[in-house]
């Protein structure tokens, strides 16, 4: 028997109005754009979305994501486990103008469809929460390439020797 991928979609306004919540374990294999940043696609991420209305009557969604992904170390190219723990408050709006006037503490996005695909929204948030570079604990702190150049203190000419020579010439 084959499992079909089921979309995870909601109407964010109805979710907030009903103070409803939804939870899902998301296999990393389903997140095609995220896989490009990872060294393997094994494991699952846990996501929960809770709707509510704030004191200014804004319809909001609090999204919490946690789990582990595997990325490649930037110096040794070995797999490194990276913990994902993200929490964001999404603010669905109906116009571009509303995005510009949204409070900074909310992540405003344009909602212009019948249903919102939560997998796409959550995948975007996971990608944004990934570290820019990953280093394994046993990796060297700085990788160097090419021949090592060692300069001795005594071998360097004094850059102020020319000035001292000019001063001596002017006094003579």
From TrEMBL:
Matches recorded under Pfam families: YceD
Gene Ontology cellular component list: cytosol
InterPro entries: YceD, YceD_bac
Keyword tags: Ribosome biogenesis
Ligase recorded as keyword: no
Domain of life of the organism encoding this protein: Bacteria
Coiled coil, from the record: none
Family, per entry: Belongs to the DUF177 domain family.
Function text: Plays a role in synthesis, processing and/or stability of 23S rRNA.
Name by which UniProt lists this protein: Large ribosomal RNA subunit accumulation protein YceD
């Amino acid at each position: 028997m084959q499992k079909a991928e089921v979309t995870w979609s909601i109407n964010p306004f109805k979710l907030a109005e009903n103070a409803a919540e939804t939870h899902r374990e998301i296999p990393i294999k389903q997140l095609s754009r995220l896989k490009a940043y990872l060294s393997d696609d094994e494991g699952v991420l846990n996501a929960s979305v809770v709707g509510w209305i704030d004191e200014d009557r804004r319809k909001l969604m609090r999204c919490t994501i946690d789990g582990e992904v595997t990325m490649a170390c930037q110096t040794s190219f070995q797999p490194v486990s990276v913990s994902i723990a993200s929490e964001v408050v999404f603010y669905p709006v109906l116009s571009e103008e509303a995005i510009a006037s949204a409070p900074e503490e909310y992540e405003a996005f344009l909602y212009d469809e019948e249903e919102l695909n939560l997998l796409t929204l959550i995948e975007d948030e996971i990608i944004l929460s990934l570290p820019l570079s990953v280093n394994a604990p046993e990796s060297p702190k700085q990788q160097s390439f090419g021949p090592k150049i060692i300069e001795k203190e005594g071998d360097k000419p004094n850059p102020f020797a020319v000035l001292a020579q000019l001063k001596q010439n002017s006094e003579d």
